[in-house]
Amino acid sequence: MNPVDNPFSPGAGTRPPELAGREDILNSARVTMQRIIAGRHSRSQMLLGLRGVGKTVLLNEIQNIAEEEGLRTAKIEAPENKKFLEKLVPQIRKLVLQIDRAAKVKAQVNEALGALRNFISMFKVKVGDAEISVEPTPGVADSGDLSTDLTDLLVLTAQAAKAAKSAVALLIDEVQYLTSDELSALIVALHEVAQKNLPLTVFGAGLPQLATLATEAKSYAERLFEYPEVGALTKAASAEALREPVEAAGAKWETAALTKVVKITEGYPFFLQEWGFQAWNAAPGRIIPASIIPQVSKAAIARLDKNFFKSRMHRMTQREQDYVCAMAALGPGNHRSGDIAEEMGLSVSAAAPIRGTLINKGMIYSPAHGDTAFTVPMFDAYVRRAILSLEAKAAAKPKAAKKSARKKRG
Ligand SMILES: Nc1ncnc2c1ncn2[C@@H]1O[C@H](COP(=O)(O)OP(=O)(O)O)[C@@H](O)[C@H]1O
Ligand SMILES: [Mg+2]
């Protein structure tokens, strides 16, 4: 069918044409927002899931819900290897400046701005053109201790919002990239906000290790947050994600074609978009026949190899690549860390730092103690394909390529 009309949207954070199977998470987010606006307590939430399951899409949707319910919102994507504060502070500033500065709340807003000003100079946060034209508020957010000062900042922001009969929702993506100091400070600050019953809530999203990171940072984090799991879609929701957009465009899936794609993608949202996208383009008419699915899979995998998988591989050091090659060589599914180390010819303690940096980069995670798995489905198969193609090249061009294949495999 005409690619111009293709409704599917494979990508990062791109809204799918049909946001299937997430009603529970969205309904619970709406209830949270309504409670916060009504001055009631509701726990902050951290959506946990692997890459490509739709966490960013959900955060964007939750931000829309928060705005519909009348909250002020700010969305922050925590940067990898950079200071979270540099992303957070300008957003807090924007929020505070939006709060109605009617005479009644002016004092509170100025106090929050004063705290912000102290915070910026205390932690030398670069905020671009953020001139803050208020007097610093002495004694708040100026202790130099990140937890204390972030607490002051969020508490005063929430108090200003409350005075203006408003509420604040912070949406934070990629929370696993926060350093342990940043994460602890955020948790301490939210704990204080909750105890004071102030109208500020956080919806975060991150890779599964975030739950452990948060608990390690502050043990009470398990009671402070809810952790909705964002996983693969059920068969019914997967079918809906594929069917709805096609039927809305006046076309149809042959039932067998739809069933096949649901099975191949295992309900993994990013792959549903990718396969839907390729199937639309490959369909000869208004019906997507089952006969074209093998060719669709080939096109989808080729595109994943060239972009998504390859760019992930490129973000790894040689040692990290060796680790994932050893993991892939063990086959699909979870593997014991000990088996991977053995496959590499290393002791578990020698392999542990490599495993650690791969977890930090979001390439692998630990589904259970001592187990290791890839954060992206089908990545193991990609690595095996990549190794095979290196070996094939090595076989064709004896000397130089063989050496490089050996080197690549470690
Ligand atoms: N509920 C859903 N139904 C269908 N497709 C979805 C759904 N959620 C996300 N997607 C698609 O999956 C892909 C990945 O979404 P994204 O939010 O970037 O995932 P994450 O942030 O978890 O890595 C995008 O192409 C998006 O359109
Ligand atoms: Mg994301």
- Ligands, deduplicated: adenosine-5'-diphosphate, magnesium ion
CATH architecture of the largest domain: 3-Layer(aba) Sandwich
Total count of strands: 10
Question: CATH homologous superfamily name of the largest domain?
Answer: P-loop containing nucleotide triphosphate hydrolases
Order of helices and strands: HEHEHHHEHEHHEHEHHEHHEHHEEHH
User: CATH topology of the largest domain, what is it called?
Assistant: Rossmann fold
Q: Low-confidence stretches at least 5 residues in length (pLDDT < 50)?
A: none
Classified by CATH, the class of the largest domain is: Alpha Beta
Strand order in the sheet with the most strands: 2-3-4-1-5
Q: Report on the biggest sheet.
A: 5 strands, parallel
Helix and strand content put the structural class at alpha/beta
Distance separating the two termini = 45 Å
How is this structure best summarized?
The chain contains 17 helices and ten strands.
Question: Would you write up a description of this structure?
Answer:
The protein has 410 residues and is an alpha/beta fold. The chain folds into three domains: 3-12 and 233-312; 23-226, P-loop containing nucleotide triphosphate hydrolases (Rossmann fold, 3-Layer(aba) Sandwich), CATH 3.40.50.300; 315-409, Winged helix-like DNA-binding domain superfamily/Winged helix DNA-binding domain (Arc Repressor Mutant, subunit A). Helix content is 57%, strand content 9%. The chain has helices spanning 23-37, 55-68, 85-98, 103-122, 146-163, 180-195, 210-217, 221-224, 235-248, 255-265, 269-282, 293-314, 318-329, 337-344, 348-360, 379-396, 398-409; strands spanning 44-48, 72-77, 168-173, 200-206, 225-226, 252-253, 287-288, 335-336, 364-365, 371-374. The strands form three sheets. A five-stranded parallel sheet has the order 2-3-4-1-5, with helices on both faces. Strands 8-10-9 form a three-stranded antiparallel sheet. Strand 9 and strand 10 form a beta hairpin. Helix 3 runs antiparallel to helix 4 (103-122) and helix 5 (146-163) runs parallel beside helix 6 (180-195). It is globular. Residues 12-13, 55-56, 173 line the site of magnesium ion.
